[in-house]
């Protein structure tokens, strides 16, 4: 078995210092997270500010080479990173989980290394020649979540570094060790202070968002925290990219083959045990195929193993923390009081561990019930019956969130027509939640603003400059 002790020793606070971090599957303490002060954050930002001009001056080719070297470093320590991630976050090694996430880190690094953001000629009419160029913003503050801590950190830092910014990363208080380890590995290939990670509490996060030397804030997390970041950034006028909460709706059309879509539906909802911003969280199914879809999903759920992530057979893990476990449990219990039918799961899986909750399919439920209206962010899926597709579209659009959505059906043209009416940043056809490093991704309404990925993602961490003459 690969030992993660070397990585832990490099990033953990000494015994007796810092804050203990527990394995959500077993409760075991795996290391101690350093707890930086606001003064230490200020010093880190000052170092990043001092390093930024030289990093930008290296030019695109040199920065691209550095990102590729950083991807090589991740690949060399991939198994150690995956095992540390599994122990800290709880997600299994296999399936679309820890090894998958580490692989996505190197893939996003390499894609950003290869991207080109060329100057654009705006006007060239013989009298006026105007070009649009992009340069670095300066220092980027990246505040990440606990559900995909490594992958989302790279989503933030890779384009920022590519454009010549330096980056200060503040990981989630729940999953700091794996992010600190990732940054330590990346820094084997990057110049000093181009990338700095600072682990700390909410006071550190608040200071990062409001610091006068932070030029851009990238945040992935809850809508409530996103609103506070907007308020905090008013003083420094930092640019913002906010990827906030979602309550993604899926619509299954009549004529759909339930068996054919069951696996993709299941993983659209339950990737990372449902702890994904753009997971499928409300499923509207036409009455003509409702029972078949519920039954097909139940069969997949029963065949999908859950347990300790270090067990190679498991592909579903625990909830990462007690707060999220309590939210899922509360919403399922509330659904029961409203007469909903529990098809699978429905109560904590205490035989597996304190924070395990089984895949819970909840049928015969309606809009207005908390499990439908609130983001559960866990392994419980409400399945709502409809008879008129217009009602399903209205239901999908009724909440003040809009990260993702999906339409499922045999007629792709019809699905696209319906997708065009869904109020979300992305609408998938016959799939849900898949992202690609070249396809922009972001939300609308309460799910935030700004986009990541591809050329548009590079523009989001850059300042446009027009050269006219």
From TrEMBL:
One of its GO terms (molecular function) is oxidoreductase activity, acting on the aldehyde or oxo group of donors, NAD or NADP as acceptor. Keywords: Oxidoreductase. Residues 20-461 form the Aldehyde dehydrogenase domain. It holds the Pfam family Aldedh. Residues 1-29 are annotated as: Disordered. Transmembrane segments: none annotated. The keyword Oxidoreductase applies. Belongs to the aldehyde dehydrogenase family. This is Acyl-CoA reductase-like NAD-dependent aldehyde dehydrogenase. It comes from Leifsonia shinshuensis.
